[in-house]
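Why do we bother with holo predictions? Because pocket geometry can differ from the apo form. Keep that in mind while you read this record for flavin mononucleotide.
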Amino acid sequence: MKKILILFGHPAFKRSAINAALREAVETLEGITFHDLYAGYPDFLIDVSHEQQLCQSHDIIIFQHPFYWYSTPAIIKEWLDLVLEYGWAYGPTSHALAGKITFQALTAGGDFVNYRANGSNLFTIRELTTPYRATANLCGMDWLPPFAVLGIYRGIPKTERVRHAEDYRRTLIALRDNRLDLIQARSRELLNQSLDAIIINEA
Ligand SMILES: Cc1cc2nc3c(=O)[nH]c(=O)nc-3n(C[C@H](O)[C@H](O)[C@H](O)COP(=O)(O)O)c2cc1C
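The structure, written out:
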């Protein structure tokens, strides 16, 4: 069984609908450590060695967050700036995170029609998250495309929200139990498109 670390960043979690639903679906699963960064570091004073130890004791690292200005909320950027140190995460002889699976689980106000070449946001979610992919690559990590829930601004009905939460749970259980087809998953636009085709032997 693989160990999964979720680094969660939401500065207004009390008002969250979709991240709250995703969180609730996975928080208490066996093998998962859910780490709320804004709750843990309200003053942004990130404990770098604690975070590095947490990363080293897990096999899969997920950044879960709402999409803010085509990127992450500030604490995740701060976490990356401080924790991914030269001589630990990268450098000629340093690769503490090498081989660990990583991806973003993000939620966004815009919908698919906005996130495309001729849409209002000009680029796809996969394109807009390339800095994160490049970061993972520099650290020798095994990057997967984002698990993305789009269209929050159109108002997601409860049934759809429940389905996304269930898909998140299924994805994490499959990854934890080595039942996700990683080769197929890597080539996906988003991790949660056609999940049935990449989850192996689901009970
Ligand atoms: C400061 C800020 C920036 C945002 N930037 C984006 C953005 O760049 N693209 C987008 O689609 N939605 C954007 N949104 C919408 C959020 O992504 C959306 O409200 C969030 O995913 C909803 O999740 P929640 O219910 O967990 O709060 C932004 C919202 C805020 C408050």
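The chain is about 35% helix and 15% strand.
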